[in-house]
Amino acid sequence: MAKSIRAGVALASVLAFAPMCAPANAGGVSVTNSSDVAALVNALLAGGTGGVHVTGYSLLNQSASTGETSTGLYTTNGPNNYNLPGSGIVLSTGNAADDGSGPYVPGHFPDTSYGLPAEPAQMGLLQPLSPGTSRFFDATQLTITFDVAADTTSVNFGVVFASAEYPKYVGSYNDVFGLYLNGVNIAFAGGKPVNINNPFMVNTGYNDYNGSPRGADGSQYQETPLLGLLVGPSGNPFMNFGGAVVAGSKGNTLTFIIADAEDSAWDTAVYISGLGNAPPPGTVVPEPASMTLLGLGLAALALFSRRRAPK
């Protein structure tokens, strides 16, 4: 089982989170950096409904000598405004540990830049998620190979997508997340790819847009300083993404990829959990899961990551 880490020189904002715009709950989300691929895969399976047997995995993520890493493990302590369950993984374009619960301090965002462009092989995965974008940076990519049980005809997981890019950089820095099942992206909300421009993104507390007040249309969801949040058509940020597989099939692949668009500044993150053969409890389906399994036996995809610099 291969693991690759692509290191860069990270530039990171040091954020002092003052007690303002704090989450309206007594729980919270904690994130610990980790590049241990086995631990990430085990956390991804935790809380799932079974039927999936992982046979291989690889990771290409970003890291720096100062401790920043673009992958991590999350845990929850009671209720949280993202509706996340007990535990799972975080893939980030910055430093994953910055993506836990905390308030937004005006003018300061999770912002770690590794400054590394996406590899040519990754461009084929990223460009369909943001047509017209020609450059991607700080990508993190996790691929797993798996077999399914004789009674398993779909795979499912819970996902929360959040970003510091929204709402200020809608239409320009369109950071993306893709979830490829056997080569086909199955991550959609309202029929559109998961990115900053998705119409179901909301602002959970950013009120100093270009120095002027701006209303927060999703303040009830504020949980982390990543103030842009995808809530899907149902209004629940914890969404189920799933796709069809052939019962009893072997050698299936899942590729999770997230990246900055056009530059490496301002972090975007995705929280993933509950990989199994049925939707995780508490999730909603943002898009009918009618994707069919295509192209069994695809070659394993390369993976990687990085992030930050002021805009």
TrEMBL record:
The keyword Hydrolase does not apply. Residues 1-26 form the signal peptide. Pfam families: PEP-CTERM. InterPro entries: Choice_anch_L, Ice-binding_C. Residues 285-307 form the Ice-binding protein C-terminal domain. Keywords: Signal. This is Ice-binding protein C-terminal domain-containing protein.
